[in-house]
Design a protein that fits this description.
173 residues; mainly alpha; two-stranded antiparallel sheet; 4 helices
């Protein structure tokens, strides 16, 4: 019974290398993999920037809506824009002065173009390769340790031979 437990323990230690590989894979995937926390934070940052840009565009839209309403309903605003376009009302005299620059028209800032940025991550294939490397290396280290401790030997056990008769070491009852 005790010998069987030792054999199981010796074999179970190599299962530990599979555990090491799995843990390495999970850690790499969580930190720099495709669905990692790093990608999540990059996407959250993009979401924040898009939110800010959306707010800016909504502000520009509300300003333009106010200006449109004023141009449609307010006679003083309509008259001011008409004067910018060199229109005059009855009773006004127009005096043109040459040599001056024309009035600049108002340009509206519509925001900047925002492109989707790809997340930077380590591919699934590379995560698995790194994990497999750690698994193999831990198995090799355990195997080398067993060889060094004498648990594994590559020498054949030769039975002792006395005058042509093999002698076996059998346990005494």
């Amino acid at each position: 019974m005790f010998v069987d437990n030792l054999v199981i323990m010796k074999r179970a230690k190599y299962l530990f290398s599979i555990l090491i590989g799995t843990v390495v894979y999970v850690l790499i995937s969580l930190t720099v993999g495709q669905n990692s926390l790093r990608c999540y934070s990059q996407l959250e940052e993009q979401k924040r920037i898009i939110s800010l840009r959306t707010t800016e565009i909504q502000n520009i839209n509300s300003e333009l809506q106010l200006e449109l309403t004023a141009l449609q309903n307010d006679k003083a605003v309509i008259a001011a824009y008409a004067r910018k376009l060199d229109y005059v009302s009855d009773g006004e005299k127009l005096v043109k002065i040459t040599g001056l620059k024309p009035a600049q028209t108002t340009l509206y800032d519509t925001g900047t173009i925002l492109y989707h940025e790809q997340c930077v991550f380590l591919g699934e294939k590379y995560c698995k390769m790194i994990a497999a490397f750690f698994m193999i290396m831990s198995a090799v280290i355990m195997f080398m340790s067993d060889i060094n401790n004498g648990n594994i030997s590559f020498e054949r056990d030769h039975a002792e031979v006395i005058a042509g008769i093999p002698v076996y070491d059998l346990p005494q009852i």
